[in-house]
Amino acid sequence: MEGIMDPLESVIDFKSGLLKPFENKVARKLSDMQGMYLDDKALESIVNSGDDVVYKVFERKVPLEEGHLVHSTTVIYPGKVGEEYYMTKGHFHTKEDRSELYLGVQGEGYVIMQTKEGKVSLIRMKPGVVAYIPPYWAHRTINIGKNIFAFFTVYPADAGHNYGSIEETGFPKLVLEKDGRPTIVDNPNYR
Ligand code: M6P
Ligand code: ZN
Q1: Which of 5, 8, 18, 65 shows a CA-CA span of 20 to 30 A to 174?
Q2: Neighbours of 187 (CB within 10 A)
Q3: Ligand 1 atom 15 nearest Cα
Q4: What is the pLDDT of residues 49-64, one digit of tens each?
Q5: Contact assessment for residue 111 and residue 131, using Cβ atoms and an 8 Å cutoff
Q6: pTM for the whole thing?
């Protein structure tokens, strides 16, 4: 039938977290994440001393329409801003009733989720762990390891990304390194 897309094949490199091939690549630097970390001064000093790529997303190109599934890998590099581990910006879906699935591929991390009603939930990620993010839950991922943390993602192609409310409120909890260990604490700046 005309208009039907051909199937796509891709391979996840379980060591590097790369998805091959990929058509879209997003790289976010610390300078793209102003205001998202607890320690603004620590962020400013890293940005001034040359900035740093925090994470990259490698994505297959599919039509951004209902019925299609975006699939990609995300690689978060190791590092901290003050005590806070490198993490993604985090977002609600523009269509809030759209869900998402993560599969841990390499390294260790957390996915932190919250609803607008103030519920919060964390899933510890490592290779093989599947996290289901139901509709209405915002999500952010955090690299708590000394090496890369990579995961594979699938979500409805019409979901969209809404960063606005996360930029304003943050998440209710933070994952910080305390005495050399990842520690979940309340976010003093929440709301
Ligand atoms: C995962 C998915 C993507 C998202 C990416 C980076 O791969 O959730 O939709 O774009 O992580 O996260 P963010 O968009 O919040 O920066
Ligand atoms: Zn999402």
Answers
A1: 18
A2: 16
A3: 90
A4: 999 999 999 999 999 9
A5: yes
A6: 0.97
